[in-house]
Each structure stands twice: as structure tokens, then as C-alpha cells.
Amino acid sequence: xxxxxxxxxxxxxxxxxxxxxxxxxxxxxxxxxxxxxxxxxxxxxxxxxxxxxxxxxxxxxxxxxxxxxxxxxxxxxxxxxxxxxxxxxxxxxxxxxxxxxxxxxxxxxxxxxxxxxxxxxxxxxxxxxxxxxxxxxxxxxxxxxxxxxxxxxxxxxxxxxxxxxxxxxxxxxxxxxxxxxxxxxxxxxxxxxxxxxxxxxxxxxxxxxxxxxxxxxxxxxxxxxxxxxxxxxxxxxxxxxxxxxxxxxxxxxxxxxxxxxxxxxxxxxxxxxxxxxxxxxxxxxxxxxxxxxxxxxxxxxxxxxxxxxxxxxxxxxxxxxxxxxxxxxxxxxxxxxxxxxxxxxxxxxxxxxxxxxxxxxxxxxxxxxxxxxxxxxxxxxxxxxxxxxxxxxxxxxxxxxxxxxxxxxxxxxxxxxxxxxxxxxxxxxxxxxxxxxxxxxxxxxxxxxxxxxxxxxxxxxxxxxxxxxxxxxxxxxxxxxxxxxxxxxxxxxxxxxxxxxxxxxxxxxxxxxxxxxxxxxxxxxxxxxxxxxxxxxxxxxxxxxxxxxxxxxxxxxxxxxxxxxxxxxxxxxxxxxxxxxx
Length: 582
Prior knowledge:
This protein is an alpha+beta fold. 38% of the residues lie in helices and 22% in strands. The strands form 5 sheets. Strands 10, 11, 12, 13, 14, 15, 16, 17 and 18 form a 9-stranded antiparallel β-sheet that branches. It has a 5-stranded parallel β-sheet with strand order 6-3-7-8-9. It has a 4-stranded mixed β-sheet with strand order 2-1-5-4. A hairpin with a 6-residue loop joins strand 19 and strand 20. Helix 11 runs parallel beside helix 15. It is globular and about 70 Å long.
């Protein structure tokens, strides 16, 4: 494998972005040539054509539900060319949901290569500002998920797990000096808590070699160091005695740790001294990992609320937001690592896929309301180089992995251009309603949860007149809050059961995992006075809106103080879920 060169990676990026339009045309041509015999493309009559005009006129915009019949056939073992020219042998489990259940997206070798391209580009720019020494390691809080086998024998797991299981990915990361200090036995542990403990242990053992600290998401970094506050004395004891805690019971982990854990009283004393000298754990990361150059992970969108706590742990270390992508594919790289996460932008790599952008405008009423309920006026999609600075768009992707004119559902703002490729600022998930950290629940998911819980009210002859939701982050951990206006009073025990049912009805993998490890708190059900939603309508009308335009907001932005005040002042009862324990 050739030695990775930061200078060559930056030069290649500069060349590709100077004529992004031509690169986009070539990329689309290559995608369509590789997948020319795919049933999906034949269905719409593309007939082997590879030019942009024919592609846009034949192939419609799509969402995940349009592809589900094809993906289901793949999962069932159909090896014919359905979405791609070559058979798909792996699926990624997206944390997003459509019909109240996780969705599958194809995982291909091309996605692996795109991941390396994006990673190499952003690493090159990071390394120019914060050089990483050769042979150094990274403290990475990464965790695999359980791999399932579909009825047709296709392996399905998260995109992260799909990557870490491939030697090509690990070789590429090692070449970029971002080798995880923990072995596979820790990354692929079946027990999250034991895996986290051992990530910390390995990080401490190799403390002098660690030059970067990483987790996929900011909340994972915060959670890791909150856990460290609880177990640091146990970790010191393990290092001092050279014996792993009996709380670690996974045999493969114990066997792996035994190979490197030796009695080291000097290191244990040093860690203890540093921990005891900290003020409320401020600056714990640079204190224990003095050679770390930065802290790295996704820090935009729903991760922003964790930045204050993460900065507390990081002290003066820079926080760098990771690249912009999804389970479906990659969009852009962070080439400005010195920019704070709140202001980060992502430069689109024009060779990783074919990109379009749907221009979006809000109605005047919603602009006045500052509502998170996103109902945009759309225009026809434009190409990568046709976007305008300052305007907002929805991202549309065509990938090597069989997604064609796929609406990603992300709203972005064009912050500027690097050469001829745009730099995007992530604004929000267009369809996302409820999200605290890695959980992603849509309006449809909320509706399905409410419908499930409403069945418990049938015996009471009580109906849900209307409902909405919000998130409560004033306490830690944050939680979902569901508001119901009922037709009449209901039994207390029944309403408590409804709160439990709502909590269990959100099936998104991110929510389930976060509830189990208590990084999301118990769901709260609040019962409203009759007439509450009429009061919200009246408020909407005072802003100049019309009754014909009004839609009950299924999610109330925490910044929407007026509507939240209406809901809070009209709350009569509150019930906290006990579905995941107290």
C-alpha cells in the first residue's frame, strides 16, 4: 500500500475542485456505466445513457421508501443487478427511521473508498495545522454493533461496524497515523460498558503515544469522560497491580488486555496525582494525554449542546468537527480545522458522488414564527456548481452504491466556495422531529408512537384530540416530552402506562441504545387543558398567518418560547416513563 502523503492529498483536492462541474459530469458517467444493467435504472428507461440531461429527465427524485422494495429483495437473497451492476453483499443499518423501524442502505466497496478519500482529505488539512507524529496512536471511543444476517444471507450492521470490519479501512487509518489504540476485541465487544472501560484503560497505558482523541459523536466523548469520573480509581488500581478488574467479564477482552497490562505503579501514581489536582475535571484530556493535538468528532446539529461540556474536559485543546456524511454516503470534508464547530463548513468532494440541491424557501408565517416545523417551498434541483451563497437547499445524492437522485433530507446553507466546489453549513435534518444525541425520530415515528399508546385509552373511551412534542434539555440527561390534549379525563394508571408505551414505541437504534445506557432520560407525557391547541392557533393568527395555512406543529423548537409557554401553562398532569427502569 503506498505511503499516504498529506501534500499529495491536498494537491489532488485542489485539482478536482478547480473544475467541479466537469468532475461531476465524469463522476455521473462513471456511476451510470458501472450500474448500467441495474434494474432500477432500466425501469425508468435510461437505456444506457450517461449524460446529465438524460439522467435528470428519466430518473425521478426518490426517498428511502421508494427503494425499499429493491433493498428488501437484496436482503431476501436476490443476487440479480437491482440497484448496482455488481451484487450487494453488505447492508448498513441506518440510525434514521421511516416507518418506525431502522432502515437498510447498501454498503459497497465504493463507499469504503469514498470514506478513505474524505478521511484523507480532511486529515491532510488537519495535519497541516496540527501535525501528528509518525507511529502515534489515537484514543478512539468506537463501538461495533451486532451483525445480523438477513433471510437471504446478507450481512447487516451499522456503517461504522461495516468499516471497522474491513482490513482495507484499518490499513488506511493506520497509514494516516490514526490507528486506534484499542484492539478489535475491545471495539467489537458485545458489552458497551466493558468496551468503554477498556478504551479508557488502553488510552491510559499508551498515554504518551496518544496524539488525538476521537469519537463519532460529541455526546460519545462527553459520555466517555463522565464515565471516567466514576471509574478512574478502578483504572488506576488495574494499572498499579497489572490485573484487570473483575467487572470485565468478556473472555476475549480479558485475553487481549492480559497481553499488555503489566504492573506499573509509577503510571498509576501519576494518573492519580493528575486526577486529584483537577478542578471539577476541567482539562482532564490534556492532563492525562499531554501529547494530544485535538479532540475530533461530529459536533454539529444535535451535537452542539454537548460542546460546552466537551470544552470543559478538553481545556485548551482544539475541538474539530468531523466530516459530513450519512449512512447513505459522504457529502463533504472539513478543510478548515481551526474554525470552531459552531461555524464549521464542509467542502463537497466532487468525485465521491453526483450531487444536486433543491432550493428551499420558508413561508413568511414560518419565518416569523422561527418554527422548527419545516414546510418549505421547493424549486427544481440545481447542480453542484449552480448553488448560490447564502441560500438554503436540501441535498440530493447519486452514489456508486445504488442510490439515484436520493433525497438525503438534510438542509444546508451555502457558506462559500473553495475553487468551484461549494462549502456547506449543516442546518438541520429536514424531517427530523425528535433528537437529543444520536437518536433520530421523525414526525412519522412520533405519529406511530402516539397511535400505539392511544390504544390503551380505548377502554376508557378517551380520545387524543391533538398532540405535539418537544425536547427538554434543562436537566441532564435530556428527554422527550409528549403533549396530549384529551377528550376527557383518564385513569392515572392508564396514563402512566401510556407514558411507558410511548417510550418503548420509539424503535430508532440511537434512541434505544441511549435509553438503555441512560444518556437520554425517561420520556415525559404531559396532559393539557382543553383548548390548548386553539390557543396555539390564535397565537399563529396574531403573527399574520391564515387558518388555511395552520398545521399543528408536531415538534416545538426549544427556542420557540411563546408556544412552549402556552404548553407549559396549560399542563395539568405529568407522567414519567418507567419502561427502562428508574
